[in-house]
Design goal:
single chain; Neuraminidase; 29 strands
Length: 337
């Protein structure tokens, strides 16, 4: 074959996706990653929150049975990563650790709570080596999520949608603040460019704007597209993540059985929703496998590696799913040769 022709044919196969383009948003399944192994017979099941630091270290909050711990791995895209326990509580956090975030200095924030008979919310801060820097206890408050403002304060939110704002130095807090998300708020994620707060309230994604750490009471809920992409009485969105690169909010959803008292996941129908973070427009819906025996599955995170981005979704007793973006038009690709 002519050398020039061979070079051209080879070059046509090298298509490089460019980040930051509006039509570069069509995620397809890429592969799987194994969950942590508890022992030779059991793997962890309920990964309900994920967070990642500046070095690519992935943290997982495990909420199943007696295994309520925070795991970490430094090779999150391996098929079977090497996991270590980062934090195992010295108090009984019966409802698990439903808040997990990492700041710019790679310190780790964790929110958990005790059982309903003596309800207390614990908020912890650790350095990257796992040393506890501080903890704060809030009485009569259930912890269901948390994230960081652009000014460094940590916002913890409880199940009823009420927020507390924590000083990053010692955890002292102000609040409670009612920002309008309402009951059954399960998680929050903050866009630091304007400190807009996105939250999951039952089956809907909410958005609050206009506030700051100095004036948190100024937050108000604004219109965010369609309130619900599923029946709020039969669908739960347990987790969400703001993806700055594309200015989108990624959330999960799974069907539940509300005809009995268990309020547990029913069937294996899970979905991932990708919405425009400004308007709430639904850009993509992905069917994802979920374990029907898992309570509150579906944590989501974006992992960047070697210039590419991967969407990781939990929800199985043995694996987490990876998705990679593909173009929705030819303008999303650059040809190099």
């Amino acid at each position: 074959m002519n050398k020039k022709i061979a070079t051209l044919v080879f070059s046509l196969l090298i298509l490089i996706p460019l980040a930051g383009m509006a039509d570069w948003l069509n995620w397809v399944h890429y592969g799987t990653v194994r969950t942590p192994e508890i022992n030779e017979e059991q793997r962890t099941i309920a990964i309900i929150r994920m967070a990642i630091d500046s070095t690519g270290r992935l943290y997982l909050s495990d909420n199943r049975g007696d295994t309520k711990v925070i795991w970490y791995t430094d090779n999150p895209l391996a098929y079977e990563p090497e996991y270590e326990v980062f934090f195992e509580p010295d108090v009984e956090l019966a409802n698990g650790m439903q808040g997990l975030a990492v700041c710019d200095n790679d310190n780790v924030y964790v929110v958990g709570d005790t059982d309903s008979t003596e309800l207390q919310r614990y908020v912890f801060k650790f350095d990257r080596d796992g040393e506890e820097l501080w903890r704060q206890v809030i009485d009569d408050a259930r912890g269901s999520g948390g994230d960081l403002l652009s000014t460094g304060e940590f916002v913890s939110i409880q199940h009823q949608g009420v927020c507390y704002v924590h000083d990053p130095d010692d955890g002292t807090y102000s609040g409670p603040y009612e920002i309008g998300f309402g009951n059954f708020t399960r998680d929050i994620s903050i866009r630091q460019s304007d400190d807009a707060i996105f939250g999951i309230q039952s089956g809907a994604v909410r958005k609050a704007t206009g506030g700051s750490a100095a004036d948190f009471e100024a937050y108000t809920v604004v219109d965010f597209g369609e309130a619900d992409y599923g029946n709020t009485e039969t669908a739960i969105r347990p987790s969400l993540f703001y993806y700055e690169e594309e200015n989108v909010v990624i959330s999960t959803n799974y069907d539940v059985d509300v005809e009995d008292d268990t309020f547990a996941a029913s069937g294996d129908k899970g979905r991932v929703f990708i919405q425009d973070a400004d308007t709430g427009e639904l850009l993509q819906e992905i069917d994802a496998p979920f374990d029907p025996d898992t309570y509150n599955p579906g944590a989501v995170i974006i992992i960047s590696d070697n210039g590419g981005d991967y969407l990781m979704v939990s929800g199985s007793s043995t694996h987490m799913q990876l998705y990679t973006p593909m173009p929705t038009s030819a303008s999303s690709w650059t040809l190099f040769y």
